[in-house]
Design goal:
globular, alpha+beta, four-stranded antiparallel β-sheet, about 90 residues
């Protein structure tokens, strides 16, 4: 994936990201946290903002954002820019 494409993913996601009612509970459960809707939205925006564009990977209809500092992977629908889920990732060295 070339840099221009990934940068446009990042900007597009930050400009248009949206959430469903169910995703807040899913993110709290998957990350084993208890955050409010506003706190989850701030967390997601922070993760996307601080993640280097080289860690954005499009596969099929989804964009996967890997943030190794926080050990979190975000899954976002590339067509709707809707957050689907967040998962803890295991970093292998």
């Amino acid at each position: 994936m070339d840099t221009d494409t990934t940068k446009s993913y990042k900007k597009d996601i930050l400009d248009k990201i949206c959430y469903t009612d169910l995703v807040y509970g899913r993110i709290n459960k998957k990350l084993n946290i208890e955050l409010s809707r506003a706190e989850i939205e701030n967390l997601i925006i922070s993760i996307i903002s601080e993640t280097d564009e080289s860690n954005f990977h499009k596969k099929g209809k989804n964009i996967y954002i890997f943030n190794t500092e926080r050990n979190i992977r975000l899954t976002i629908n590339s067509y709707t820019t809707r957050i689907i889920t967040a998962d803890k990732i295991k970093i292998t060295k």
